[in-house]
Design a protein that fits this description.
single chain, alpha+beta, Lipocalin, two-stranded antiparallel ribbon, 18% helix, 55% strand
Length: 363
């Protein structure tokens, strides 16, 4: 009898439990849909904030897609200085490398393929393959650079100072196989006057600067540097007179910096723009030097760095052509050793936009 009552009660409650489960399932799906819509709304709001502009100064890109041809060159230069007794200095750099590439763009993303022209024409002498990567992202408010470079060994001794005061210097611009570099890092920054000043107008062609404007810029950077040096590969007369401080095998240092500077977009004619940007940085460097000649300690010091950008562009919204340069300069100092290394990318490009956005098709 007791089992019969329990069975009757279960049969009575079963429809209610089923309806409750269905209702809970519907509520779960509804909450999931609301969460997705809210997330999308927040992402759109963040994207709008990052690219909010004053249309009296900056005109947004009216097209969905872009195609571009670009020639890019990587530049780098190293100055090694010893302050023992009478200062000595070596200036070392490779020949510039040139790449030709074709790129397809959607909004602020450009994807493409490039070829090293030295590979194409068979003029590369370096036995060590170069690896280069650079990515720059520009929005109205925030931006950044990520870069990596592993050089080949096709460096040349360009000049010396303080070594041959008592006689003729050796023939320079000769290949030295004993110098190679590995650099990687990132740089991020904030544009204060982002509604009126546009970095993308000068460097990514995703907007047009219509009236001249400038802005203060602040940011931070991090980079790692590995410089390998076999001084025995230098010309014999140089090795003979070289200070012990410059007879090192490797310099490794990490660079942490905060930077503050100013950038200005000058609209000097209709559809024409020139940009210049200087951001000095206070940098904390932690380093280690390996040498057969001397036991160096680990150094921790503050130095000054510099990030420089410049660009000129013609952009009538549909067609554009221009050139730009982004340079990084690092200072590294100890009590009797100084290293200055600069590297950057020079770009020359031409392209066009196509497929107008819906809101601009009837204008």
């Amino acid at each position: 009898m007791k089992r019969l009552k329990l069975l009757t009660l279960f049969c009575f409650l079963l429809p209610s439990i089923s309806l409750l489960a269905q209702d809970e399932h519907l509520n779960f799906k509804q909450r999931g849909k609301e969460l997705r819509e809210k997330t999308k709304e927040n992402i759109n709001m963040i994207g709008h904030s990052l690219n909010d502009i004053d249309s009296n100064y900056v005109e947004p890109n009216k097209y969905n897609f872009a195609f571009m041809l670009e020639n890019s060159s990587w530049y780098e230069y190293y100055i090694l200085t010893s302050n023992e007794n009478k200062p000595q200095q070596l200036s070392i750099s490779p020949n510039m490398s040139y790449k030709l590439g074709a790129y397809f763009g959607w909004k602020w993303i450009f994807l493409g393929w490039s070829i090293d022209l030295q590979d194409l024409f068979g003029n590369k002498k370096s036995s060590e393959k170069k690896t280069e990567f650079g990515l720059s992202l520009y929005s109205s408010m925030l931006g950044g650079d990520i870069y990596y470079r592993k050089s080949g060994s096709n460096f040349k001794l360009r000049s010396t100072s303080g070594i041959f005061n008592d006689g003729p210097a050796p023939d320079y611009d000769k290949d030295i196989d004993g110098f190679s570099v590995d650099i990687k890092g990132l740089n991020a920054y904030w544009v204060f006057n982002h509604k009126k000043f546009s970095y993308p107008a000068a460097y990514s062609q995703s907007s047009n600067q219509r009236r001249s404007a400038g802005s203060f810029i602040a940011g931070f950077s991090y980079s790692q540097h590995e410089i390998h040096f076999d001084y025995n590969k230098l010309p014999a007369p140089v090795v003979e007179k070289l200070h012990e401080t410059l007879k090192f095998n490797e310099v490794n240092y990490s660079d942490y910096s905060v930077n503050f500077g100013y950038a200005y977009n000058w609209v000097f004619a209709h559809n024409y723009l020139f940009d210049i940007s200087l951001t000095p940085a206070i940098a904390y460097k932690k380093s280690r030097i390996d040498s057969d000649q001397k036991d160096y300690p680990t150094y921790k010091k503050l130095n000054l760095d510099l990030i420089t950008r410049a660009g000129i562009v013609y952009n009538d919204s549909k067609y554009y052509v221009g050139a730009s340069v982004v340079m990084h300069t690092y200072d590294y100092r100890t009590n009797n050793f100084y290293l200055n290394n600069s590297f950057g990318t020079i770009r020359v490009y031409v392209g066009f936009n196509f497929s107008k956005k819906k809101q601009y098709r009837d204008k």
